[in-house]
Amino acid sequence: MQNSLQVDAFEQIHDLKVDLQNLLQSVEGERKLIRQLLSTTNRLATSTYSRNSAGFNKNGRIL
Asked: DSSP letters of 3-49?
Protein backbone atom coordinates (compact mmCIF):
# COMPACT_ATOMS: atom_id res chain seq x y z
CA MET A 1 0.00 0.00 0.00
CA GLN A 2 2.71 2.48 1.01
CA ASN A 3 4.78 1.57 -2.05
CA SER A 4 1.75 2.26 -4.25
CA LEU A 5 1.29 5.68 -2.63
CA GLN A 6 4.96 6.48 -3.18
CA VAL A 7 4.67 5.54 -6.86
CA ASP A 8 1.54 7.70 -7.22
CA ALA A 9 3.27 10.62 -5.50
CA PHE A 10 6.33 10.24 -7.72
CA GLU A 11 4.16 10.19 -10.85
CA GLN A 12 2.27 13.29 -9.72
CA ILE A 13 5.54 15.11 -8.98
CA HIS A 14 6.89 14.10 -12.38
CA ASP A 15 3.71 15.30 -14.11
CA LEU A 16 3.92 18.58 -12.20
CA LYS A 17 7.56 18.99 -13.27
CA VAL A 18 6.61 18.46 -16.91
CA ASP A 19 3.74 20.95 -16.59
CA LEU A 20 6.05 23.53 -15.03
CA GLN A 21 8.65 23.05 -17.76
CA ASN A 22 5.96 23.54 -20.41
CA LEU A 23 4.70 26.64 -18.62
CA LEU A 24 8.23 28.04 -18.45
CA GLN A 25 8.71 27.51 -22.19
CA SER A 26 5.40 29.24 -22.85
CA VAL A 27 6.33 32.20 -20.66
CA GLU A 28 9.73 32.49 -22.34
CA GLY A 29 7.98 32.52 -25.72
CA GLU A 30 5.63 35.25 -24.51
CA ARG A 31 8.56 37.29 -23.21
CA LYS A 32 10.27 37.02 -26.59
CA LEU A 33 7.10 38.18 -28.35
CA ILE A 34 6.72 41.11 -25.93
CA ARG A 35 10.34 42.16 -26.54
CA GLN A 36 9.74 42.04 -30.31
CA LEU A 37 6.58 44.13 -29.96
CA LEU A 38 8.38 46.68 -27.77
CA SER A 39 11.21 46.90 -30.26
CA THR A 40 8.80 47.45 -33.14
CA THR A 41 6.87 50.05 -31.13
CA ASN A 42 10.08 51.89 -30.31
CA ARG A 43 11.10 51.91 -33.97
CA LEU A 44 7.68 53.23 -34.99
CA ALA A 45 7.78 55.90 -32.30
CA THR A 46 11.27 56.98 -33.41
CA SER A 47 10.15 57.04 -37.04
CA THR A 48 7.06 59.08 -36.19
CA TYR A 49 9.11 61.52 -34.13
CA SER A 50 11.61 61.93 -36.96
CA ARG A 51 8.80 62.60 -39.44
CA ASN A 52 7.20 65.12 -37.07
CA SER A 53 10.44 67.01 -36.69
CA ALA A 54 10.89 66.95 -40.47
CA GLY A 55 7.70 68.91 -41.17
CA PHE A 56 4.92 66.35 -40.83
CA ASN A 57 2.03 66.56 -38.41
CA LYS A 58 1.11 63.73 -36.04
CA ASN A 59 -1.03 62.07 -38.75
CA GLY A 60 1.88 61.90 -41.19
CA ARG A 61 0.62 64.72 -43.42
CA ILE A 62 2.98 67.41 -44.66
CA LEU A 63 2.57 70.65 -42.74
From this structure: HHHHHHHHHHHHHHHHHHHHHHHHHHHHHHHHHHHHHHHHHHHHHHH
Environment class of 51 (CB within 10 Å of its CB; exposed 0-12, middle 13-18, buried 19+): middle
**Tens digit of each residue's pLDDT (9 = 90 or more) over 4-63:** 888 999 999 999 999 999 999 999 999 999 999 999 998 888 876 665 565 555 665 655
pTM: 0.57
CA distances from 36 to 20, 23, 48, 60 (A): 24, 20, 18, 24
Are 53 and 47 contacting, i.e. CB atoms less than 8 angstroms apart? Answer: no
